[in-house]
Amino acid sequence: MTNDIYDFSPDDAKRFAVEQRAQTRQFGEELQFKYCPYCNGGENRDQYTFSINLKNGAHNCKRSSCGKTGNMITLHKEFGFSLGRNTDVYLDQEKKHRPFKRREIQPDDPAQAAAIEYFKTRGISAETVRRYSVTTKADDHNVLVFQFFSEDGTPWFVKYRRTDFDKKKHKSKEWCEKDRKPILFGMDQCDFDEDPLRLVMTEGQIDSMSLAEAGIKNAVSVPLGKNGFTWVPYCWDFLRRFDELVIFGDNEGGEISLLEDMKNTFKGKVRVVRQEDYKGCKDANDILTKYGPGALKAAVNNAEALPVRHTKDITDIQRRNLADIPHMGTGIPELDNVLGGLFMGQVVILTGPRGDGKSTFASQLAVMAVDAGYKVFFYSAELPDWQFRAWLDLQVAGDECIHNGKVDDDAMARIEKWYKGKITVYDNTFDDDDEESEEQAVLNAVKNCIKQMGTNVVFLDNLMTVVDSGSSENENTQQTRFVKEVSRIAKRYNILIVLVAHPRKSSGPRSFDMDDISGSANITNLADVVMRYARPTQKKGEEMPDARTKRILTVQKNRNDGRLQTMGISLGYSETSKRIFSIQNEMWKYKKYGWTEGADDYDEIPF
Predict the structure, then answer these.
(1) What is the DSSP letter of 189?
(2) Res 604 pLDDT > 50
(3) Is the peptide bond before 196 cis (omega within 30 degrees of 0)?
C-alpha cells in the first residue's frame, strides 16, 4: 500500500473487527462482518454485506445504498484505525509539525567563525561548514548548532552539540529543540543525478560532513542517534528515491551502528562499510583526521552488500559426483540401475494400493539400510510393534532359517545381537497427557534420534496417520507443511527419509500417475523419488495364479537424473520370509545379511 510503508497483514483486518466489536465469519479469503461498519446494514439490518479481503486488505459493502470501498488506509483515515506508528505518522504528519524560520548566517558572523575554527581540528573546511549552515550559539561559541533542512530547504529540526563537554559541569553533550520534526541531516545537499542513486548514512552530523569533505555525494546522518528512528516516516519518500543505501555507522566493538534497523527499513539494496576499512577507527571523522579523504572514498566504494540469509554464491558450493554421496542399495538390481540407489539427503515417497505390501517393502529397505551400516528409525502407526518386529525378523532370517513360521532359536539369538542399537522404533503405545500432537511427537523423535543416536535412515509409515487429523488446518495444508519439514530435515542432516503415502481411491483400472497420491500435489513436488509398489493390474475375468506373490514396482519420479521406470519391475514375494525380490535376479531372495557368518556381497549396487 501507500509507498510501501505499510504492508498488509490479515491480523490488521481481524484487529479492526475487534476494535469495532464486530461479529465476523471467515469465508474463503474474506473476513465478513455481520454488519457493515459504515451503514450498519441499513434499515433492514442486512447481514454480512461488508467484507475485507485477507490477501490484500481491500474492503467493500455490497449494499447498493452504501457501496463503500477502500483498503486498510481508508479505514485508518475514516475510523482512526492504527496501522502502526510509522504508517500512522506518515499518513498524519502534516497535522503535527510546522517549519521554523531559517537562521540566516552572515559571512562575517562570529558564531559561524567559531564553528569554522572548531571544524579545522576535525579536518573539515570552512566551505563545507558554510554549505551545511553550521554555526554556534551566539551566547556560547562552544555549542555547535546543526540545522536540518528538507530537500526543498525547509528547516524542520535543530540539534546542539557541546564541544567542551564535561560530565561534572554539563547535563548533556547533545540535545535538540522540542516539538521539531525529526529528519535526516544533509537532505538538502543531496544530488539526484547519480546512477545508480546511492545514499550514505552515518550516525553523527560531523561524520556526514566528513564524507562531504571527501567528495562523497548524498551523505546524511540521523537526527537522534543510533536508537532514535522516529524520523523514518517523515523521510520515507526521500528514502524511496534511492536505489542503494551504504551504512557508515559507528564501529562499536566490531558492530556497525544503524545496520540492523536500516536493513529492515530500507527497501532497496543495502551495503555496509567493511571492518577493515575502518582501520581501527570509530567513525568517518576519525578516519578522515587520521588517514585523509582518500580512505573515506575507498571505504564507501568498497562497502559490501549484505549477505542474504539462507543463500550462498554458487562458487562456494563444493562440487560432488553423485557416486560420492553416501547411498544404499535397495536389493532390487533393476531399481538400483535406474536410481543408482537411495541417497542421503533424499525424501522418497513409496505409494501403492492398501494391502499390496508397501509396509513390507519399506521394512525390507530398512533391513538393507542396517546391512549397509546405517542406523534406522521406523515409525509405523498401523502395525503393533510386536507384529512389525515379527515381520522384520522373518525378512532378516530368510527361508532357510524359518520353520513352521518361526525363526530358528539359534538364528534369532544372532539376529537380535546384530539388531542391537541399529533400529529404533517409534513407541505408539504411550499415553501422554501433554499437548504435543502426533506429528510433533514423531518429528521430535526423528530429530532427537538423529542427534543422540546417529540415525541416518528414517521410515515414516504412513503420511495419513502422522499428521494431526484433529487440527483445524485443511488436510492438504497439513500434509504439505509436514512434507516440507521432512524435506528440510533430510537436507539439513543429510539423511534418507522414506515416506509411505496412500493413493487416492480409484474408480477402476487405469495408468497411475503422481497426482493419484492422496493429499496435496505438493507432496510429490517436494519428494526426490516417487515409487509405486502394487499387484499387477488384473482385468475382469483374467486368471492370475501368481497374484498373491507377484508385484510391480514403478519409478514415477527421479530427481537425480530423471531416469524413470514406468513400465514396471516384476517382483516376487516369499510368503515364508516376507522377502521381496527381483524375479529376474531371484538370488536376492536368498541373500545372507551381516548376522550370518558367510554374509554375501549381494548388496553391492550393480551398474
Answers:
(1) G
(2) no
(3) yes
